[in-house]
Specification:
This protein has 277 residues and is of the alpha+beta class. The protein is built from seven helices and 15 strands. Helix content is 32%, strand content 25%.
Length: 277
Amino acid sequence: MAPKVREFLEVKAFGEPVTLNEPAMIRAISSNVAQYVTVKTFSEALRKVVISELEPQLLHAGRPLSETPPFPWSRATFAADKCIFNLVPCHNEFERGFAQFLQKAADVERFAKLPEQFGFAIEYTDNAGNLRYYEPDFVALASDGIHYMVETKGLEDTNVANKDRAAQLWCENATRLTGEPWTYLKVLQTAYKQLQPTEFEDLLISAQGELFAKSHSIPELSVVVLQHPVECKGGVLPEGGRGTIVHVYGDREHYEVEFAEPFPCTVTLQRDNIHPE
């Protein structure tokens, strides 16, 4: 790698060939700007080689949740006979309330909160192109035989859209490779509280309504209003914040939105989290 970096600095970095051992060039390549440009250039070039999409394969028939080793849990729990675990391990009260809903819903056959100890994660790339792993919250089997991967979401961060796309793709591939129907469903805390569902079908009807709304794409440079708080650059963009769409992705469901207040931030958002002003 070192010879390539040296060649880059000698030939390309400064727009013309330079001699690196000259005092002025030594000071130049020691600057933060030179280091930033070099790292950024090589990161983008290497990412195309290191990270690549593979054809999905069914490596094995899967493993049952009952094989999860026993583990201690100090956060919220809920006893449910529809779940394989004696107690449903929840990270917060929203997850606990959602577990109670799944237990009571007549059209849910069984469900589980996926614990970290089970070791299930989906690969995805973040906004910077780095490979990361996403651990879904729940799985549920509805009375119509459809398996659901469910993500309960309170505060959205900048990588939510990337996780959603990865989960949707996983469900599509799982359906194709196993013959068992899988569907991804995201449940937003604010919308869930407003809906107050009693059956799982209520969530699906609500999601379908959002899909109809998302079918009407928003043009680039439109001013939009944030529907739910979103984490960005260590801060939180509040509900009701106004931003401008600077890029519309090809699926017309994801948008790059630039905010000026309460602090400058550009973030990728889903259609259901923004409304035209």
